[in-house]
Amino acid sequence: MKRKDFGMIFGVMFLASSMLLLTKVYAQEPDVGYVSFNSDRTGNHDIYIINTDGKNLQNLTDHPAKDFSAAWAPDGRSFAYVSDRDGNYEIYVMDLSQMETRRLTNHPARDNNPAWSPDGQWIAFESDREEGYHIYKMNIRGEKLQQLTNRGQFNSKPVWSPDGKHIAFNSNRDTSHGIYTMQSNGKRLRKLRTGNGANPAWSPNGKQIVFSEAQDRVLKNHALFIVNLDGSGLRQLTNDPRFHHQPAWSPDGEWIAYILWQGRGKGTDVHVINVAGKPIQRLTNDGVNKYFPKWVPEGFLAVSPIAQTQTTLWSRLKKSGSD
C-alpha cells in the first residue's frame, strides 16, 4: 500500500471516530440504563422500570396491592418500597436475586417514602406514628428504629447525602414549607430553602441539591431548581407553566429524571433533562399517572435477566411493552 493511500485511510478513520465522539457529546443523551417509577397503568399502582431510551418497560411488583415509592439499595440488588398489601401502608424490601419480599415495618401508622443510605445499612422514612409526620431511620432488618425529627407537623421526603452523613427533607416547622438538612443522627438542623420548595435530591458529588418549587400563589406552576448547599447559586432548570416535581439526580451527575404533569386528564410522565437545562427527553407517553422516578444502580444488571437475555427467566416479571 502506498504511503499516501495509508494516510488517506488513516485520515478517514480519524475523521469518522472524531465525528462519532462529537455526535455523542453534542447529542447529550444519557447512557442506556434504567429509571424506576410507580404507575397505575393497569388500574393499580405497581413499580416499573424503563430504559433511559424509553424502551423495555417492565413491571417489578405485579401485585393487587398498591406498591409505590421505590428506593434502591446501593448495590442495585434490592429495593425498599411502600405497600398496603397487609392492610396498612408499610415499608417492604424486595430481593431481586430471590424475588422475595419481606416487611420491615409493622405499625398502625402510615410509613412512607423510604430512602436507602449510601453504605447500605440504613433506611430513612417518614411516618405519622407520633403527632404529625416525622423522619425516622432503621437498619435494613427493620430494627434499631430512631426518630430524627420532633418539630413541625409535616416532615417528609428524606434523602441521604452521597457520603451518608446528612439527610435533606421537607418540613413546615417554621410555619412555611421549606427544605432542611440535618446530620444523619438528627442533629445540626439547617434550613436550606424557605418557601414551598419540596422533593430535594442530592447531586452525586454532594455539593448541590435539586428541588421543585411553585412559581405562583395557587401552586400550579412547579419548576425545578438547583442550589448549592450553602444556599447560593440558585438556578432554575425548567421554565414552562406545567408541573415539574419529584426530581432524581443520575449517578453520573449529568441528568435529572422528574415527573411532569401534562395537564388535566393527560396523566403524568417521566422526563429526563441535562443539568445544563437541555435537552428534555420524555421516557413515557401513555396518558396514565406515574410518580417517584429513581435511577436504578448498575448492580441491578447483575441480578436481572432482563438486561441479559430478555427472556422469561424471571417468571414474575411481566413484560408490558414500551410506551
Descriptive report:
The protein contains three helices and 25 strands. With 323 residues, it is mainly beta. It has two domains: 1-30; 32-319, Neuraminidase, CATH 2.120.10.30. A five-stranded antiparallel beta sheet has the order 24-1-2-3-25, with no helix packed on it. A four-stranded antiparallel beta sheet has the order 4-5-6-7, with no helix packed on it. Strands 8-9-10-11 form a four-stranded antiparallel beta sheet, with no helix packed on it. The model is unreliable at 6-27 and 307-323 (pLDDT under 50).
Short description:
This protein has 323 residues and is mainly beta. The chain contains 3 helices and 25 strands.
Distance between the termini: 52 Å
CATH-defined superfamily of the largest domain: TolB, C-terminal domain
Q: Strand-and-helix sequence, N→C?
A: HEEEEEEEEEEEEEEEEEEEEEEEEHHE
Q: Main beta sheet: strand number and arrangement?
A: 5 strands, antiparallel
Approximate helicity band: 10-25%
Strand arrangement across the biggest beta sheet: 24-1-2-3-25
Q: pLDDT average, as an integer?
A: 84
CATH-assigned fold name of the largest domain: Neuraminidase
Instruction: Work out the helix count.
Output: 3
Q: Which regions are unreliable across 5 or more consecutive residues at pLDDT < 50?
A: 6-27, 307-323
Computed CA radius of gyration, to the nearest angstrom: 21 Å
Structural class: mainly beta
CA-based shape? globular
According to DSSP, the number of beta strands is: 25
The overall number of domains is 2
CATH class of the largest domain reads Mainly Beta
- What is the annotated CATH architecture of the largest domain? 6 Propeller
Beta-strand content estimate: 35-45%
